[in-house]
């Protein structure tokens, strides 16, 4: 009923809030990406207004939306996600016959795969100590688990008892952002973090912490620890931290990709901060293969030929 006045003013046009409901039921409701799509979709609806007719959205409006989110510090990849949810809503409305034409969609923003914000060891300890100080040890343990495993918060939030094998030291993430389930070994620190909270019923969630409550406590921690103006420091930085530490230990990008469930090597390339000492090790390994013997032998033949000519 709340949409009726808007429909009369706009000529009974299909509104963006209706398009959101349509796409949610058609695309996102039963998918692993549904949580993110719903969150991004709501932000898009809030930008334009729930009663804004879908038919009125043009390429320049999409461009203005992207500029708006850029001004709030969103990364290009996140903005592309939000634009993608808007595209889904517009396309679904058109295919279902609610709109007559599609706008020209601008190209995706180029990704800036620069070094991401990570937690230092000192910062990690500061957050852990803070959660203990306010008598929330579960938050401290979950924080350590996120850094050790490099999983997305949504993956950790949904973890059930049956998906963690503390004896074989591994965890299964059945629902992931890229729709591919993955099994990952548990580090000793991650195992120690999750073990106290294993439920007696295997179908119960382990942590019992929603993103809303986690975000509130994390924001409080940032304020107390002096990071309130560090806008790049988010919960997702635990994932960047894990990947960066893995590459620093010489783990290959392919293995990092499999560990964290990234879809491509390009996505993990930002974590490959080359260390010259690692390149020196590569050179030493090549030396051990004695590949230069062929050149050494050929050099002897060249020297002999040169001396003969002289």
Q: How would you characterize this protein structure?
A:
With about 300 residues, the chain is mainly alpha-helical. Helices cover about 55% and strands about 5% of the residues. The protein contains 15 helices and 3 strands. The protein has a 3-stranded antiparallel sheet, with no helix packed on it. The protein is globular and about 60 Å long. The termini are far apart. The relative contact order is 0.08. Mean pLDDT is about 85; it is low at about 1-10 and about 275-280.
Shape: globular
The fraction of residues in strands falls at under 5%
Low-pLDDT residue intervals, each spanning 5 or more residues: 1-11, 274-279
Order of helices and strands: HHHHHHHHEEEHHHHHHH
Structural class of the helices, strands and pairings?
Answer: mainly alpha
Radius of gyration: 26 Å
| Number of strand elements | 3
Q: What would the average pLDDT be, to the nearest integer?
A: 84
Q: Approximately how much helix is present in the residues?
A: 55-70%
H/I helix tally: 15
Largest sheet: 3 strands, antiparallel
- How far apart the termini lie comes to 101 Å
Strand order of the largest sheet: 1-2-3
Keywords:
single chain; 310 residues; 15 helices
Structural topology:
Layout: H1 4-9, H2 16-28, H3 34-48, H4 59-71, H5 76-95, H6 121-133, H7 137-149, H8 153-157, E1 164-165, E2 170-173, E3 182-185, H9 188-194, H10 211-225, H11 237-248, H12 253-260, H13 265-268, H14 276-288, H15 293-309
Antiparallel strand pairs: 1-2, 2-3
């Amino acid at each position: 009923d709340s949409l009726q006045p808007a429909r009369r003013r706009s000529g009974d046009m299909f509104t963006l809030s209706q398009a959101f409901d349509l796409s949610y039921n058609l695309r996102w409701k039963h998918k692993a990406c549904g949580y993110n799509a719903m969150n991004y979709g709501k932000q898009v609806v809030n930008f334009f207004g729930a009663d804004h007719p879908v038919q009125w959205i043009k390429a320049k409006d999409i461009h203005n939306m992207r500029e708006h989110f850029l001004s709030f510090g969103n990364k290009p990849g996140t903005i592309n996600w939000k634009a993608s949810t808007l595209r889904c809503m517009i396309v679904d409305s058109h295919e279902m016959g609610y709109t007559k034409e599609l706008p020209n969609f601008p190209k995706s923003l180029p990704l800036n795969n620069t070094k991401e914000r990570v937690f230092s060891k000192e910062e990690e300890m500061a957050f852990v100590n803070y959660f203990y100080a306010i008598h929330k040890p579960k938050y401290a343990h979950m924080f350590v688990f996120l850094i050790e495993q490099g999983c997305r918060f949504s993956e950790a939030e949904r973890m059930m008892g049956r998906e963690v094998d503390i004896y074989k030291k591994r965890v299964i993430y059945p629902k992931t952002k890229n729709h591919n389930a993955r099994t990952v070994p548990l580090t000793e620190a991650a195992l120690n973090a999750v073990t106290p909270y294993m439920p007696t019923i295997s179908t119960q969630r382990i942590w019992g912490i929603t993103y809303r409550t986690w975000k509130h406590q994390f924001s409080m921690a940032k304020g107390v620890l002096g990071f309130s103006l560090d806008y790049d420091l988010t919960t997702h930085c635990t994932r960047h931290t894990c990947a960066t530490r893995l590459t620093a230990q010489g783990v290959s990008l392919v293995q990092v990709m499999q560990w964290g469930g990234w879809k491509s090597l390009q996505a993990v390339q930002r974590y490959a901060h080359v260390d010259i000492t690692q390149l020196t090790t590569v050179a030493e390994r090549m030396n051990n293969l004695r590949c230069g013997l062929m050149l050494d032998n050929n050099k002897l033949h060249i020297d002999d030929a040169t001396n003969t000519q002289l």
